[in-house]
Amino acid sequence: MSALSIFPADAIRSEFSSAMSAMYRNEVPAYGTLMELVARVNDETLAEQPALKARLDATDTLERISQERHGAIRLGTAEELAMMRRIFAVMGMYPVGYYDLSTAGVPVHSTAFRPVGEEALKRNPFRIFTSLLRLDLIADEALRAEAATILSHRQIFTPGAIALTEKAEKQGGLEKDDALRFVAEVLETFRWHDKANVALSMYHRLHDAHRLIADVVSFKGPHINHLTPRTLDIDKVQALMPEYGIAPKAVVEGPPTRTCPILLRQTSFKALEEPVSFQDGKGGWQSGTHTARFGEIEQRGIALTPKGRALYDALLDETRKVVRPAADGSNAAAYDAALADVFKAFPDDWASIRAEGLGYFSYSLTEKGMKGIPPVSSLETLIADGYICFDPIVYEDFLPVSAAGIFQSNLGDGASQEFVASPNQKRFEADLGAQVLNEFDHYAGIETASIEACLAAFARQPA
Ligand code: OOG
Ligand code: NI
């Protein structure tokens, strides 16, 4: 038996994200416009900031700067979620984190499928924020049962996608031809369907219960609802969107503009109303519309420790007690001002963020350190004396309050609904068929490994 030549999972993920990008630009022209704007602003930012350009050139691939960093889907059943997990594993994407969105009036809970480990993230960080609909949060029992029945009849995966996933599991990966076929088959699950699975009357009933239920239940598959390229200047893209004929959401989610970026800032253009044909019950079609698909941008900063995250959460909470951003943007300026003001309490230089244990850092030897170091010294002394330096570790995950803001602004400006907060990670993991990974372990692991590598290098040096 000849050995298989396995096409790396990271390469499958890259093929998948670029295929998805091409499909989505084609399906949603406004998304293509957003991509153009992002590329322009990234070019301008690099031209204005040579130091940033040099740094990115050393750590990232510049021509890939404006590429997609994540997308999102919403699934209907436990079986769909479990199969999705197996498919993503073939692309080196694993569930990290549990996000309960019920607190924010959205009847879903979620995880992010993403590469784990520095190397894989560097090769291609593409993630899919994946939500599972929670019919248990719907009060109307009859409607809940009908929705469950509709969902139980759909098959969102092609036979080819399933067969190739099983093959990958059996052989421990796919060869190139199979991998490319796998990408094409899996892409079908994310495609838009302009013909609904249900009649217009059923769509309205689902929609009245919650717009998100209609988005999940009415269609043949979990269409990708947005993709998100990376921007180097999110405030500028937000400001320029109207000039490009696209309507931005009211406010940028996450922390304010800072010298030392923390966590994740994101914004989007508002979902578009698109024509859809609904079943008319007589074998024909009836026209209607559905609003779900949009484009988003993100800018990432340092990953925070549990202590830093607690401070972030407390400050965000405090801000929202002062000003709650309205969906129509009427108090956006007041919200931005309150956010900036309250976040003055979060240190804005790397040394303080490190000294106070708020963020995760990666440590490395300086040029001086590489030449040799004094025999007995602590990490702190070695840093102070210029033998070791530290760089922020980038946050690779999501933020529940921000995610809720992204959801809400794309579900229409109408009154948002209240649900009793009911996180249920155990149930989510049972449905997923696996436990989600803990995001903090990941960052702490990278930090510890970097310190150990420095110390090991010292140990090798002649005293
Ligand atoms: C997902 C919203 C969450 C983000 O970037 O926080 C998200 C959705 O609307 O399905 O993608
Ligand atoms: Ni998103």
Mind explaining what this structure looks like?
It contains 19 helices and 12 strands. The protein has a single domain (6-302, 398-432), classed as Uncharacterised protein PF07063, DUF1338 (2,3-Dihydroxybiphenyl 1,2-Dioxygenase, domain 1, Roll). It is α+β, with helices and mostly antiparallel strands. The protein has a 5-stranded mixed beta sheet with strand order 3-4-5-2-8. Helix 1 packs across helix 2 (29-48), helix 4 (78-90) packs across helix 18 and helix 12 packs across helix 13 (332-342).
Given this structure, which CATH class is correct? Alpha Beta
Please report the distance between the alpha carbons of the first and last residues: 52 Å
Helix/strand-derived class? alpha+beta
**Considering the protein shown, what is the CATH homologous superfamily?**
Uncharacterised protein PF07063, DUF1338
The best one-word shape is globular
Defining traits:
12 strands, five-stranded mixed β-sheet, binds 2-oxoadipic acid, 47% helix, three-stranded mixed β-sheet, 463 residues, binds nickel (II) ion, single chain, 2,3-Dihydroxybiphenyl 1,2-Dioxygenase, domain 1, alpha+beta
In short:
It is built from 19 helices and twelve strands. The chain is an alpha+beta fold. 2-oxoadipic acid binds next to strand 2, strand 5 and helix 17.
Secondary-structure map:
Layout: E1 6-7, H1 9-27, H2 29-48, H3 50-59, E2 68-75, H4 78-90, E3 94-100, E4 108-114, H5 118-123, E5 127-133, H6 141-152, H7 159-171, E6 174-175, H8 176-189, E7 195-199, H9 200-209, H10 211-217, E8 226-229, H11 234-240, E9 264-279, E10 285-300, H12 306-322, H13 332-342, H14 350-355, E11 361-365, H15 367-371, H16 379-384, E12 388-392, H17 400-409, H18 425-432, H19 439-460
Parallel strand pairs: 2-5, 7-9
Antiparallel strand pairs: 1-6, 2-8, 3-4, 4-5, 9-10, 11-12
